[in-house]
Design a protein that fits this description.
By secondary structure, the chain is an alpha+beta fold. Helix content is 20%, strand content 35%. The strands form two sheets. A nine-stranded antiparallel β-sheet has the order 2-1-4-3-9-10-7-8-6, covered by helices on one side. It has a two-stranded antiparallel sheet with strand order 5-11. Keywords: Membrane, Transmembrane, Transmembrane helix.
């Protein structure tokens, strides 16, 4: 599927009411044939007071390497969440994909997921730079190296350990989330592996270099009804703020 042949309408769709926000999900994988799945749905947060309806785009790319399977594939997930009526209709798919730029070379790092030896916990990097991260699981029974790096608002967090997993699927990947309302971006890189020094910071740097995902939010917002609604809301709040600020200044002139 490309922006040239993406569907503009889908058959047998129904409109769900009383949903908190709408979702577009696109999954495509290469093994080696490219398969694409599109899902349009609604969602209601079971704890509505805990969060506001989002307007975000999350894009995920990763390579799984399950030792119980022979095939390996590159998988990509795109999830667009929006808070206005029918903002996930098929017409949004084309501007969504045309505003997205992805350079993905993760398949060149597939060798990092291979392991032909008996696992040794000494292979794993053990490091954390924040007490807010999950507790490390460096027990003698751990069976997988793991390293997660997150970056948001100029804060970089590293969480590397030897991890105990019931289903130790080796994988590496990257996820980026664009908040279209707050105009912020967060990044996450990860690797789960079972080889000597596979979770090293050098390998994490290779992951960051092999994939880049960018999104032209301004162009997308101008082309969609959900985007126009958000832009109007942002401009409205700016106008209110300026109005209050002017009143505040005028008050102190007297």
């Amino acid at each position: 599927m490309t922006t040239e042949n993406i569907p503009t309408q889908l058959n047998n769709c129904t409109v769900e009411t009383e949903q908190q926000y709408c979702i577009v999900q696109i999954e495509w994988k290469e093994n080696p044939k490219i398969e694409t799945t599109i899902r349009l749905t609604g969602y209601t947060n079971p704890y509505p007071r805990s969060s506001f309806p989002p307007h975000t785009l999350a894009v995920n790319a990763y390579i799984p390497n399950d030792p119980n399977r022979f095939e390996r594939e590159v998988r990509h997930f795109l999830t667009y969440s929006c808070p206005t009526d029918q903002c996930n209709q098929p017409a949004v798919l084309k501007p969504l994909l045309e505003s997205l730029i992805m350079n993905d070379g993760l398949n060149e790092l597939e060798y990092l997921l291979k392991s032909n030896q008996t696992f040794d916990r000494q292979w794993c990097l053990s490091f954390q730079n924040s007490s807010y991260l999950s507790q490390r699981n460096d027990s003698k029974d751990c069976n997988q190296c793991r390293n997660y790096i997150t970056y948001k608002n100029q804060w970089k967090a590293v969480d590397a350990s030897c991890y105990t997993s019931v289903y130790p699927e080796n994988r590496l990947g990257y996820e980026v989330t664009f908040d279209l309302k707050d105009q912020t971006t967060s990044h996450s890189w990860m690797i789960q592996c079972q080889a000597p020094n596979c979770s090293s910071m050098n390998n994490m740097n290779q992951i960051t270099e092999k994939i880049q995902i960018e999104f032209d939010a301004d162009t997308f917002l101008e082309r969609t009804s959900a985007g126009l609604s958000i832009v109007y809301s942002m401009n409205f709040h700016k106008t209110i703020f300026m109005f209050v600020l002017i009143l505040f200044i005028e008050f102190f002139r007297f």
